[in-house]
Batch of 2 targets.
Target 1
Amino acid sequence: MKIVTICGAGIGSSGVLKINAERALKALDLEATVVAADVSTVRTVAADAQIILTSQEFVEAIGKTNADVIVIVNLFDTSELAQKLEDALG
Amino acid sequence: MSLPPLPESAIEIGVGAKDWRAAVALSGEALARSGAAHPGYAHEMIRMIEDHGPYVVIAPGLALAHARPGPQVIANGLSIVTLKEPVRFGHAHNDPVRVVLGLAITEAGAHLAAVAAVANIFNDSSAIDQLAAATTPAEVQRIMGVTPE
């Protein structure tokens, strides 16, 4: 499974999302590759992704995609991430 | 991997900022004082938010101000500015901001280790409250797990 985290610069918040998504996946005992990217590259990077994790601000720019787009509010809250990942994958 | 440097010169406690631009500018000035970035980096951080919105408010009360690696970045570094009065960035859930964490990164490939160290601190949901309440730079460094020089 591939998960892409999206932010404006491809560093910083998408990195925080990647790190904490990996922690949430570990807590759920799930395997996935998590890639951090900036919104301008989403079409290529997320072409084969099952899930895109991002902030509300990027949902429109991400546009139409086959991946599930999940909006995370508190990027440091691994329980929010785990809950939303579990809902999407369950 | 350890946290990017957070020297005392990059910490400012209880300052006034009239709006989010002023708050981000202060965080850029702190990075410039510590030698992590040129003064122009602050403008790049502000432009990220102008271009993409208030997504940098990544947790309740905390903004992660940053731009891309580039000529304005001198070295990896962090800054912390705590605000006397909270400032609204326009985020639907995480406003108002009390702590601005500034981040300068020299190369994108290396940023994840730095961000992982930041996440280690803020996975503890009390860290933002503790920073907002800190009264000295040394206290901020202690909360961030930095040994003062």
Target 2
Amino acid sequence: MNNELLSIDGNHRAARHVLHNFLLVLLGGICVMLARMPPVHFEGVSLLGGLPVIVIYFWVLQKQTEARPVSIFLIGIFQDLLSGGTIGVWALLYLSLYVLVLSQQGGFLQFINRSALFSWLGFILVVILFVIFSWLVGWVVAGAVSAKALFFQACISALLYPVTLLWRVRSHVI
Amino acid sequence: MWAPVESKWQRAWGGFAHRHEITFLIVLSLVLLVLDRSGAGFFQRGKFWVMDASAPVVALATRSENASDAIWFATQNHFSLLERNEELRAQNSRLLKWRSRARELERQLTHYEDLLNVVAVPDSSYLTARVLGKSGGPFEQAMVLQAGKQDGVEYGLGVINAQGLVGRIIGVGDTTSRVLLLTDFSSRIPILVGSGGVDAIATGNNKDVLRLEYLPEGKTAAPGDLVVTSGDGGFLPAGLPVGEVIDVSDDVPIVKPYMQARQLEWVRILVHAAHNDIPVGGIAGDVAQDDVQQASAQEASQ
């Protein structure tokens, strides 16, 4: 009986795990596409370019190890393919973001559950570190980086992040 | 309440596998990145195989983006119909004058060429292709087109739209190809500036303007000077419009390119005249003619 229960529970967990990762890739893919639409461009720069960063940060924090690295890798590769750029750049950047968020759950991100403000500040810190790393990778890979694009995308991401706090409100209410 | 029990061994294995999955994928990303930048032939073939295979999915994504673009531009145009109408009437009147002037000049040119017995430059044919993907990011300015070797696309060919030069083909798969935009950091286009035809190189810098470098000593550019391709190097035909000089306050004049990358939905690839099997004005991929006409009308209205 116990073995049967274990097996059912194992299947249920596996299915949930696959579903979570499928949703993560789907949501990440939608954000990559949203970032490319014309109303959100300013001087040739996509202002919503940081949307996938919000999704990855939020998902990894909420679901922790449920979010598999391969899902993050797929979002990055999809963005690389869609942008016609060098293959591997966005995959590398998003995986680095994933490692950063996971590694800081015992560090500065352990305070984010205290209040919405902490959560937001945590995201801003992560975005700053992500931008610095992106800038370095950009210089190594392309020889030049549009600092304006990075700056705008980081600012807009920081401003948009509070939208995800609605999820926290919903969780509290439920 | 019964709760599943995970053994110590399972937890340890999970952590080990997770860590190794991250390490493996980071290393894989780095390897992909280095191979792509190095331009290794086998990798480029593999990359374009993946791009060719994923083209239908990417095309689907692009179509949904284009649909939203169309709604956005239609909404914008709706609120400025009268204004646009007036603008277009004025533009039409100007263009009609230019058309008669151009016909006169063409007639004169043909006459002088006949007198001088000039060997005619073979015309380029062009191939219309859908834009599958374009970057609006901080690293590169590139695009993916739904046209490849099967359609006669080759490395180095020029890509234009209604406004002028867009970029050059830098990678070709069977059904897709990659375009380096004028504005990319590594783009270098030989050009002529102004009516005097001063030689220079237009370089990109990952921004929405170009820089004019290697101007001959003592030669300068003035705001409003037109910039066209010089044809040096043989990849691009001479005389393709590139942009207009907008700023000469620095040592390096700045050019505003005519093409606007984010508005590109369809482009034309200039195919060498040697490809007699490619019909002039052909369309790459499984695309309805109506789609192209609709996109051209939208591009013209922009």
